[in-house]
């Protein structure tokens, strides 16, 4: 790993200019507006809110290219390596049996690994995981569930956190795939009990800096039948800033809820466009403004943004009425 880095050419002069003109940017969505390769994405939550449920649904949806949460587009089936480090494997099987009633799965695109002992403070453990992944093939997504079980000593300390970051970077260099890290938030202290934290991140700042995209998964009601994914970081990825979810206990799956009052203007518009795409609906400027609670002047500014232009074909048919045709 170090040798390959040291031997890579310096980028200066003509080489740098050539990259500016010709280098292909290889980041692309495996789940549009949510999960990109080779980005590292984290979902953090308190215990029991549903991180593993969501990660399992992501794995199944990717394997069959079924829209995630019934809305988010998956361009093509993707290979998922799921490293289950917590919980009982039989529980996951039972969960998938229920989920596949509404989310088809293709087992050829899934690899479940329940490696019992892992401590990336020891390089030999890294080698074992890399070898196991290679024995299956190149994944499009690697899921760690959860990351604290990959290291001894606690991720709040710099040495174990740095060891995990190094391991994650090695996987990125080796497989050039997306990574999804499931992580626990810290427990509030007595001083924090009176005021809920905006971002209860737990761990070394090295870990926080390493992640490209992060979401806080938060229960919205006491029985946890509704939850929200709130974006806390988005480096180099065009992701939704707020995703509201409804839990269906009979299938252990989540569906995406559309509430025109949730999220910023662009998030509301993109969410509504995704709903229209999945239902085959053509909408128009005036309907979008009404449904998403946005003024006409504000909406005219939004439709100039690249994030929206790449999602919608705008057509004046009939005259003076702009139709929105989701791509």
Describe this structure in words.
The chain has helices at residues 2-7, 13-22, 51-64, 89-99, 123-136, 158-175, 190-193, 205-210, 265-279, 285-291, 296-302, 306-309; strands spanning 28-31, 35-37, 40-45, 80-84, 110-113, 141-145, 178-184, 213-219, 226-234, 242-248, 253-257, 283-284, 312-316, 322-326. By secondary structure, it is an alpha/beta fold. It has a 9-stranded mixed sheet. It has a 3-stranded antiparallel sheet with strand order 12-14-13. The chain has a two-stranded antiparallel ribbon with strand order 1-2.
Tally of strands: 14
Average of per-residue pLDDT values: 87
Give the H and E element order: HHEEEHEHEHEHEHHEEEEHEHHHEE
Q: What is the overall number of helices?
A: 12
A few lines on this structure:
With 327 residues, the chain is an alpha/beta fold. It contains 12 helices and 14 strands.
Topology:
Blueprint: H1 2-7, H2 13-22, E1 28-31, E2 35-37, E3 40-45, H3 51-64, E4 80-84, H4 89-99, E5 110-113, H5 123-136, E6 141-145, H6 158-175, E7 178-184, H7 190-193, H8 205-210, E8 213-219, E9 226-234, E10 242-248, E11 253-257, H9 265-279, E12 283-284, H10 285-291, H11 296-302, H12 306-309, E13 312-316, E14 322-326
Parallel strand pairs: 3-7, 3-8, 4-5, 4-6, 6-7
Antiparallel strand pairs: 1-2, 8-9, 9-10, 10-11, 12-14, 13-14
Helix pairs in contact: 3-4
Q: Characteristics of this structure?
A:
about 25% strand; alpha/beta; 3-stranded antiparallel β-sheet; single chain; 14 strands
